[in-house]
Amino acid sequence: MSDKEVKKSLTLRHIQFLALGSAIGTGLFYGSYESIKLAGSSVIFGYLIIGFIIYIIMKSLGDLILNTPTGKTFGDYASIYLGKKWGFVTGWAYALEMIIVCIADLTAFGIYMKFWYPEVDSWVWITILIFLLLQLI
């Protein structure tokens, strides 16, 4: 199979579970605590609305992937349908967002570990996690 050919082996169920897995993360658990504490159970209604919007976006992206299998990233789809400038902006916006999410995850990890081990500073746990993650490279 050449580099240009794409094997269509993902089903709709696979794509839906990929979307669900990408939505669940550290921020969901840590961010929910403060929101629920401030607003109460009405936060669930807000999560349902945002979840529905994200569901529509992910279904649209899934349709793009199934109908136009030439792109490798959603930045490629932005380039195809909106132009190269939008593809460039989309790619860099996603890269910056991933950096911010990584920093937020590291911070949340330090806060969680501080809860269980209050005598150890958060920066120690963050440093250990960074070291362990760098071992994967």
What's the topology here?
Blueprint: H1 12-23, H2 26-39, H3 42-67, H4 74-82, H5 84-116, H6 122-134
Membrane topology: Multi-pass membrane protein
Subcellular location: Cell membrane
Protein name: Proline-specific permease ProY
Descriptors:
single chain, 137 residues, mainly alpha
Q: Between the first and last Cα atoms, what is the distance in angstroms?
A: 28 Å
Number of domains: 2
Note the main sheet: none
Derived structural class: mainly alpha
Helix percent reads over 70%
Number of helices: 6
Order of helices and strands: HHHHHH
Shape: globular
The fraction of residues assigned to DSSP E strands is: under 5%
Instruction: Provide mean pLDDT, rounded.
Output: 84
**Uncertain spans:** none
Give the beta-strand count: 0
Radius of gyration: 19 Å
Question: What does this entry look like structurally?
Answer:
The mean pLDDT is 84. Helix 1 crosses helix 3 and helix 4 packs antiparallel against helix 5. With 137 residues, the chain is mainly α. It folds into two domains: 70 residues, no CATH class; 63 residues.
Short description:
This protein is mostly helical.
